[in-house]
């Protein structure tokens, strides 16, 4: 599993919350932080029309597709004339990494004027903030129907990232993640760069694991705070004898 980079491309990354927990075996300098970040991708209609104004290829422009009695629009730009490869932008996911051939685009989409694409573009842009691709196209999502979160095709997504002295709470992590990923626990490393320039590197915690993990970390944090307070009291009473005492 590779490293996921967010914020280095077109995504807008914002830090929503940060919780700090003291970790076992350390003083107040040893801790982990659980960040909640929101990542917004996609392309607004204003951004799309700005990009379209800079295009000049005969087949560049807006295309519309009819699917399940619903229309959606894309914006394409030719980037390889010899192979007829096009860069595709979508309202909900923004720039598509995979280039599309003109033949594939023509199979699914029909070229239209910008005014004919506007409503379909803005509809999907707005709805994709909270509705996954399954619900958008089919009207329902199997995961959402049973109370689970589905982020397929979402324009706005939330990530929970654990940073800091992660190895010191690895046992707690395994206890929380094992029921989800099985005995062979695998975690996704992520590198984030927020809009204000902060860089965050850590492990992605699944949304359904955040609450139980916080409960375990809170218990450990409270125990460690008590241990630190006791050590501070002893240091005040016997400053010389404890000046070289190991950290608890």
Automatic annotation (TrEMBL):
GO biological process, one term: regulation of DNA-templated transcription
GO molecular function: chromatin DNA binding; histone binding
A single Gene Ontology CC term: nucleus
Occurrences of domain SBNO alpha/beta (ranges): 43-155
Pfam families per UniProt: SBNO
InterPro entries found in the cross-reference section: SBNO_a/b_dom, SNO
Name of the protein: Strawberry notch homolog 1 (Drosophila)
Source organism (scientific name): Sander lucioperca
């Amino acid at each position: 599993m590779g490293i996921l980079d967010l914020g280095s491309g077109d995504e807008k990354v914002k830090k929503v919350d940060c919780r700090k927990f003291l970790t076992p075996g350390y003083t107040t300098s040893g801790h982990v932080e659980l960040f909640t970040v929101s990542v917004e991708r996609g392309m607004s209609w204003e951004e799309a029309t700005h990009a379209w104004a800079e295009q000049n290829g005969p087949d560049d422009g807006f295309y519309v597709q009819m699917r399940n009695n619903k229309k959606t629009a894309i914006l394409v730009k030719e980037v390889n004339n010899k192979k007829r490869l096009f860069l595709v932008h979508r309202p909900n996911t923004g720039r598509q990494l995979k280039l599309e051939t003109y033949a594939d685009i023509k199979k699914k989409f029909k070229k239209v004027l910008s005014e004919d694409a506007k409503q379909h573009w803005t509809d999907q842009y707005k709805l994709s903030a909270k509705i996954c691709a399954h619900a958008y196209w089919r009207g329902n999502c199997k995961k959402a129907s049973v109370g689970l979160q589905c982020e397929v095709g979402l324009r706005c997504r939330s990530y929970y990232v654990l940073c800091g002295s992660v190895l010191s709470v690895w046992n707690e992590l395994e206890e929380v993640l094992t029921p989800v990923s099985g005995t062979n626990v695998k975690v996704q490393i992520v590198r984030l760069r927020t809009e204000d320039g902060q860089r965050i590197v850590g492990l992605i915690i699944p949304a359904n694991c955040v609450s139980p993990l916080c409960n375990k970390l809170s218990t450990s944090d409270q125990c460690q705070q008590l241990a630190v307070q006791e050590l501070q009291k002893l240091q005040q009473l016997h400053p010389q004898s404890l000046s070289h005492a190991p950290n608890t």
